[in-house]
Specification:
Length: 316
């Protein structure tokens, strides 16, 4: 279904644009309750909107699946056009009326990794709960190459993270930079307060390589060791940062190199120690990325400024 046919259907007395907003909210939230909250409706009003959508399209559209709602194949076919229409309404029409964070009811969606959730979410949630108490947050994990399409469709407002392979056509802004650190198990009795080059070469390494990337996050360490004619022993490569301290705790003879803020979070649970790497490594840059379609959207502009402010105090 095209945007034109969607807008043609919108003239039918049985369908209005408010129902497209309801579809959009259900698609994003996967829950009648959360969708209603995001639109400022009661749950019964949201259920009524879903019934009207089902009647109009002759399809359930969203069906119960565990604790949430899953789209049917027909809903999946409708989604790109509906999200495009709603994105246009929000980005080009509603934004002209201004954005008041204190009273706004909406859900902000972010593309980020599990590392991003550990580093980004706490300060972002603190700011939004204080400045925009009625807004909600949702996170998505998508492949880097899929980020532009997700941002363009409006399914996500921002992409937060390192994104070394930045897709073309996106705006970006650096939030902060931090160095790499070396992690060792607290049960490792051989490594003292500083790790030597000989020790890190002798130990097995745990690296994180996201499924859509061809190189690990700690590629800088690999490059520096190769420059010295040293090839490290990668025992485990995983797409998940959260497993790293668990593996190091279980196997104290292994080592990992991660961004400092992530290492600081891991160290709070007493399974690993944070040490400076035995070689100099370049700082790690974390950024926010957004699509040109929302570059002037007042809500997105406010969101970007708020997130930038949340990380102004982070050490270099």
């Amino acid at each position: 279904m095209t945007i034109i046919s969607i807008m043609y259907d919108a003239h039918d007395p049985k369908l209005d644009l408010n129902l497209l907003l309801a579809f959009d909210a259900l698609w994003r939230e996967g829950s009648v309750t959360r969708a209603a909250d995001g639109l400022g409706l009661t749950q019964s009003a949201m259920s009524h909107a879903l019934r009207r959508l089902r009647q109009f399209y002759g399809d359930p559209l969203f069906v119960k699946a565990g604790p949430g709602m899953r789209p049917t194949p027909k809903a999946e076919r409708l989604a790109p056009s509906v999200l495009s229409v709603v994105g246009t309404v929000r980005g080009e029409l509603l934004s002209q009326a201004g954005f008041d964070p204190a009273t706004a009811r909406r859900s902000f969606a972010f593309c980020m990794t599990d590392m991003g959730e550990l580093v980004f979410l706490p300060p972002i949630m603190e700011r939004l709960r204080a400045l925009a108490p009625r807004c909600r947050i949702r996170t998505l994990q998508v492949a880097t190459e899929a980020v532009p399409a997700v941002l363009e469709s409006g399914e996500a407002d921002l992409a937060l993270g390192s994104m070394h392979l930045v897709p073309e056509g996106l705006y970006r802004q650096e939030l902060f930079r931090h160095p790499f650190v070396t992690l060792v198990s607290t049960r490792n009795g051989e490594v003292g307060d500083r790790m030597t080059l000989e020790q890190i070469v002798r130990m097995g390494h745990v690296t994180v390589t996201l499924s859509d990337r061809s190189e690990p996050y700690d590629r800088a360490l690999e490059v520096e060791l190769e420059r010295r004619g040293i090839r490290r022993d990668v025992v485990l490569s995983t797409p998940h940062f959260l497993v790293v301290p668990l593996i190091l705790d279980r196997f104290p003879d292994l080592v990992a190199t991660v961004p400092r803020e992530l290492g600081t979070v891991f160290a709070r649970y007493d399974a690993v120690r944070v040490l400076p790497p035995p070689v100099d490594l370049p700082a790690f840059s974390l950024r926010q990325h957004w699509h040109p379609r929302v570059h002037h959207d007042e809500a997105n502009v406010w969101l970007r400024r708020t997130i930038k402010a949340a990380f102004e105090g982070y050490p270099e």
